Amino acid sequence: MTVVALKGLFARRLRAVLTALAIVLGVAMVSGSFVLTDTISKAFDSIFTSSYSHTDAVVSGRKLVDYSNGGNLTVSPALLDRIRRMPDVAAASGALIDLNGDSARATLIGRDGKAIQTNGNPTFGFGIDPSQPRFNPLKLKDGRWATGPNEVVIDAQTAKKHHFAVGDTIGVAAHGPKRTFRIVGTATYGNVESLGGATIAVFSIPTAQRLLDLTGYSEISVAAKPGVSDAKLVSDLRQNVPQTAQVRTAKQQANEDKKGVSSFITFIRAFLLGFGGIALFVGAFVIFNTLSITVAQRTRELATLRTLGASRRQVLRSVVLESVVIGLGASVIGLLAGFGLARGLSSLFGALGLSLPQASTVYATRTVVISLLLGVLVTVLAGFVPAVRATRVPPIAAVREGAVIERRKRLGPVAGVVLFAIAAALIAYATLGGHLGSGKSLLALAGGTLLGLLGVAGFAPALVTTLAAVVGIPARRLGGAAGRLAAENATRNPARTASTAAALMIGIALVSFVAVLGKGVHGSIDRAIERQVNADWVITSQNGSSAFPAAAGRAAAKAPGVALASDIRSDRGRIGNANVSVNGVDPATIARVYHFDWKQGSNATLARLDGHGALVKQAFGRKHHLAVGDTFTLRSPAGKPVRLTVAGIFQPPRVMEVLGGVVISQHAFDRTFTRPSNSLTLIDGSPTQAGLDKALAAFPDAKAQTKHEYVKAQSSFIDTMLNLLYVLLALSVIVSLFGMLNTLVLSVFERTRELGMMRAVGMTRRQARRMVRHESVITALIGAALGLPLGIMLAAAVTHALGKYGVTFSVPVASLVVFAVAAMIAGVLAAIAPARRAARLNVLEALQYE
Amino acid sequence: MNAAVTAALSDERVLLDHSPPAVAAREVARRYGEGDTAVDALRGVSLEVPRGELTAVMGPSGSGKSTLMHILAGLDRPTSGSVQIDGTEITSLKDNDLTKLRRKHIGFVFQFFNLLPMLTAEENVTLPLTIAGRKPEPGWLGELLQSVGLDDRRKHRPAELSGGQQQRVAIARALLTRPTVLFADEPTGNLDSASSGEILELVRRSVDELGQTTVMVTHDPAAAAIADRVLLLADGAIARTLSRPTQAQVIDAIQEVAGR
After folding, report:
1. What pTM was estimated for this model as a whole?
2. Does A843 sit within 8 Å of B131, measured CB to CB?
3. Which tens digits make up the pLDDT trace of A126-165?
4. Which of A804, A806, A847, B126 is paired with B34 by a 20 to 30 Å CA distance?
5. Which CATH superfamily is B13-259 part of?
6. C-alpha distances in Å from residue A267, one per residue of A273, A355, A541, A621, A772
7. What pLDDT, in 10s, does the model give residues A714-750?
8. What is the residue extent of each domain of chain A?
9. ipTM for this prediction
C-alpha cells in the first residue's frame, strides 16, 4: 500500500509540487526568521563579548536612570589610579564607551556636508586609550590610533561607503558645534562585519571628554593578575570603589549591555514568526483545498483499491502518507529557502531604515527541527479531513460512471456560524473591556481573529453563489460567452471556490485591518501634535526623536526672522524607584508655542516654575499621589537631587506627548542635569528654511522643519510600519495565489472533456483562456469581498478600544480599492498557467479523456 | 423580396447541384508514431458526403473509423491528403480559422453527451451560439426543442435528465446552428436499447425533415441500417459501400469484411 501511495504521488508529481508550494513559503518564513534573528543575536553577542574579551571585571558609574540623554554617572581618573595600584590588578584602563545610552555619540559628516546617519541608527563616539590595546574592543585596520586633539579613527565600513581614507579630514559633531578632524586610522569592532547602520568615531580620551562634555570615564576595564579569580577581583574592587560606582565581572557586564538588545531581538523574532504563522495558516487552507479536490478526482482510483481489498484504514494511511511526504519535501525546501529569505528580510529592514548588524550566518539545529516539524504537522493536519473523506469512497465507484463520494450532512456552515459567534465574543471581550494591551486581551483578540477567519471560511460556501453573482457582473457583462461561463464555473462547486477564496481572504482581511488601523493611528498622532504645538517652525534632531545639543537651539534662535524660540530640554530622572521623563521649559515663552491642557492651573501658573515649581502630568501625579502644593524629590541620572513643589497639573494627549511626566523651568533643568540637550526647539516668526539651515550649519544633528513637515515626519513611521506589514502580509497573499493556481489547474484538468467539447463546438483558444482567467478573477474578488469587510470590522473594534488614545475609525478608501485591484491582479496571475493549459488542450485527446 | 431570388430559392435542387459536397476527402492518410512503431490508421481514403443524406461509417475496432471522423471534422490533421468542408480546404487552416469553421459548418454529437452540468438543457442547446456571441432565432429554438421532445425539460439540468434525454439535448445543440454537416460519434453507444431506438429515429428524422447532412460513426448494425449509405472500413481503407442496406445486409457485410 505504501508503494502504491508513493507511486501514485510520483505519478501526480506536478500536483504534489503545486500542493507543496503552499507550505514552502510559510516554512521559509519560519526558518528565515530564526536564521536572521540568530545571526543578529550572534552579531550583538560578538559586539558585547569582544568589548570585554581580555577584561575580567568592569567598573562603571551606577545606573540610576534608563535611556538618559545626559548619560549616567562616570568614574573618575583618581579611581583608575587607585585600581591600578591594587595588588590583584594586572592592568586597568578607562574608556568612554556607551553602547546602549545616548551619552557617547558623535555624528560624522559626509562629503556632501550632511550627517552620516540612517534612521535612528547609533553614531558612536568613543574615547579609547590606545596604550592599553588588550582592553580595546576595536581592531585597527589601517593607520594608527588617535592621540592628538584633532585626530579621529573611523570605522572601516563607513570609510569605505563614504569614500574616506586615512589622511582625509572629516567633520564631527558631538555635544557642541561640529569640528574638523584628521582621519588617522580605520578600525572594525570585534569580529563583526557590520554594525548595521551604525557609525563609529574613536578619539583619544581627553579629546572625547571635551567633545562629549563628559568628565572621567564611562567605564574602567580591569584585568586580574594570574591566579586571581574573577570573584575575588570583583569583591576586592567593591571594597575600593565609591557608592556611585558599580563592579561587574566582564560576563555580567556583557549580559547587562545585551539586555536591551536581547529583548529587541526577541520581539523581532516573535514578530517575524507571527507572519510565518499566518503564511502557514493560509498554506493550511490551500493544502486542505488541494487535497480535497485531488481526493475527489481520484474517486475511481481509490474505489479500485477498495475492490482489490484495501481497507478503509489502508486508504486513510496512504492519503496521510502522501501528506507527510508532501509536507516533508516542502519543509526541506522551505528550510533552505528560509536561509535565502533571511537575507531578503535583512535587506527589507535595511530598506526601511532599520539596518541590523551582521555576522556570519547562524544555522541552529533548533531552526531545522522546528521548521521541519511545523511544516509536516501543518500539512498533515490540513490533509486529515480529505484523507478521512477518501475512506468513504465505496468500492462500487470503481465501476460506476460518475460516482461521487456520498456527502455526510454538511456541518460546515453551522460550525462556521458558531465559530464566528465565538470569535465575535472574544473580540468584543478584548476591545470593549477597556483594557486592550493586557496579555489576556491581546490573546483574545488574536484567537478571535483566527476563529473568525475559520468561521467565515466555514460558512463561505453558502455565500459564494450570491457573491459570485455580484463580483461576476463585470465578467458577465464584458467577458462575453467566456465571462458568462466563467461565472457559472465559479459557482459550480461552492465549497471549492469558497475555500480557495478563503485563503486569499485571510491576507486581504489582515492587510485591510492594518490599513484602517494605520489610518486611525496616523490621525491620532497628527491631531495630538497639532493640538500641542503652536509654533511655525520646529527644530528636531535628524531622526526626529532623539535629543540634540542645547547649543543648536540657541543658534537657531539667532536666525533672521525668528520672533521667538523656546527650547524644550529633555532627559529622564528618578522619583523614588520610578523613572520619569523630565522637560525643562522657558516659563516666559512656552505658552506661546505649546498648548497646555490644564487640569489644575493656567498659563499664569508657569510663572511659578522659576525656583522649585513643577508641573506634573495628570496620570503621573495620580500614580505618585501628588497634588498641587505637594513636594517631591527628583534625582538626575547623575544622582543629583532637587526638591520640587507641584505648581500645576496638565494633561497632554496619550500619544506623542511633547511635554511629559515632570516639567520644570529651564534654569532648574540646567542646574540639575548634566549635558542638557533639547528634544525640540519651537520657533515662532517667519524665518526661511535657508536662514535656519545656515544657523544650524554647525549642528548636523539638528534640522529645521515647518510645523506641517514636523507633523508629517512624526507620523511617517506609521507609513514605514505599514509598508513593512504589507510586505510581510504579501507573503500570505502569495501563498493563497498558489492556492488559486492549484484549484484552477485541477479544475481545468477535471473539465478536460468539457473543454474539448466547447472547443469542438466553436470556442476559440482565446475564449478558453479568458474563461479560466475570469473564473480566477471572480474567485479572487470573492476573497476580497469576504476579506475587506472582515478587516474593516476588526479594525473598527480595535479602534474603538484605542479611542482613549485619540484613535478614530476612518476607512482609507484608496488603499482598500488598491487591495481589491491587487486581488484581481492576483487572480489574473494565478490564471496564467491554467488558462494556457486550457487553451492548448488538444481537442481530440480532450474529447476522449475520461 | 425580389421575384427572381424567390424563384431561385424555391428550386432547391438547382441550389444543391451547384454547391460543392458537404464533405469531400481525397487520399486521406494518417500515420501515428514514427519508424518501426508507426501505425497507419488510414491508408488513403477518398469519399464524398452528399448533402441531405445520412452516411454511416462502420468497421471493427482499429479499422480507422474514429480517426476518419476526427479528420473529416477537423479535430485531427491527416498525414497526407485533403479534406474539404463546403468547398473549403481545412487541412491547412490555423486553429482559429478552424474554430470559426466549426462554429459555422460542423455540429457534434458525442457518445458521452458532454453537456455542461451547470447549464440548463436550453442553455446547453444554445451554447455554440453563446460561444460564438450570437442569439438563437426564438422560433427556431422553440421548434427544435419541441421536435426533439424537450419542450417540457427546458429548465432541467443534465443531472435531472435520463441518458436518452441528455443525448437529445446534445442533438438539439448540434442542429441549432444548421451546420453543413453533423458528426455523430457512437451516439447510441452509451444508451439502453429503448433510448437508442428513439435517438436513431431522431437522427433519421432530422435528415428527412431538416435535410441535415449527417455522418455517424457506429458499430451497431441497427444504427447503420437507418443510413442512406454505409461505408465499411477495414485496416484504414474503405472496404465496402452499401446503399440503404437492411440490418441483415449490414451484418453480412461486416462478417464478409472481417473474414477476408
Report:
1. 0.81
2. no
3. 999 988 888 888 888 889 999 999 999 999 888 988 999 9
4. A847
5. P-loop containing nucleotide triphosphate hydrolases (3.40.50.300)
6. 10, 16, 26, 31, 44
7. 888 888 888 889 988 998 899 999 889 988 988 888 8
8. 53-251, 460-528+708-850, 543-700
9. 0.74
